[in-house]
Amino acid sequence: TAHIGGERRTLLFDTGPDDWVFERNATRLGLDLGAVEAVVLSHGHWDHGGALPRALEMMALANGGKPVPVYLHPGMFGARALKMPDGRLGAFAPVPDPAVLAGHGGEPFVTRDEQVVLGDAFLVSGEIPRVTPFEKGLPGQHRLAADGGWVPDEVMPDERYVAVHVAGKGLMVFSACSHAGLVNVLLAARARFPGVPLHGVAGGFHLAGPTEAIIPETVAALAQFDLKLIAAGHCTGWRAINALSTAYGDAVVPSAVGKIYRL
Q1: pTM of the complete model beyond 0.85
Q2: CA separation (Å) from 93 to 39, 40, 55, 169, 213?
């Protein structure tokens, strides 16, 4: 929720995979889902959007039935799979498509372009440029092609970030899984807002499993941003959190449901 003058503008960034978990957490936290004015799905993985239909239903019940804009990338709806160690492809559950979301109270906006939403409170990025030599996407991911075969799909151009300029602090960047690479995300945000310092980043940084190999390069490259908050989410991995904490001390705080950060 952004406070601008006397206004409050609220955006939901991802929902998680399970509707019952979303509903339970939102209820226990006492969230007013009727105040949510827009939703962003960060990328085409079910664990970030599986609960979105139920979330939209809860918003509609709380806001009197008004449709809620949902910002989506056209590349996030194809069938995807991950190559397993034995060479087999393990298929991901599908992301709810625009028609499903519209049927649950959403108003889908499907675009590759950046969007400034809810007045000028939030920026939803466009596709994130890939400029670092070491961040190469999600190793082993494949996409189902039109001919029925599986093709490599590691780059994930459908991933986007959300940014908000906090008065007196600077830019707060919300990354989802950082499949684009955490450093690429922050470079893109800095380029989009020249002259505005980057204050912090929150999200999953996806430095576990095959991407553990790029932990040293990632940690070193983050020094250029002088971040005051690094809120590391679910897929960052304990080795990466340890390395980040060693390098950046109290700026690194693991993320959890209900945690509040004082900037």
Answers
A1: yes
A2: 20, 19, 18, 39, 27
Alpha-carbon gap, residue 96 to 133, rounded angstroms: 33
Q: Are 262 and 198 in contact (CB under 8 A)?
A: no
Sheet of 106-110, strands arranged across? 2-4, 7-13, 36-40, 68-72, 106-110
Residues 234 and 254: their CA atoms lie apart, in Å, by: 8
Position 119: which residue type? G
Give the relative orientation of helices 52-63 and 19-29 as an angle to the nearest 10 degrees: 40
Contacts of 71 (CB under 8 A, 6+ apart): 38, 39, 40, 41, 109, 111, 115, 117, 124
- Closest among 5, 97, 17 to 55, alpha carbons compared: 17
**Four-CA torsion 69, 74, 80, 82, nearest 10 degrees:** -90
Tokens of 263: 């900037």
Q: Tens place of pLDDT for every residue, the chain, 263 residues?
A: 999 988 999 999 999 999 999 999 999 999 999 999 999 999 999 999 999 999 999 999 999 999 999 999 999 998 999 999 899 999 999 999 999 999 999 999 999 999 999 999 999 999 999 999 999 999 999 999 999 999 999 999 999 999 999 999 999 999 989 999 999 999 999 999 999 999 999 999 999 998 999 999 999 999 999 999 999 998 999 999 999 999 999 999 989 888 888 87
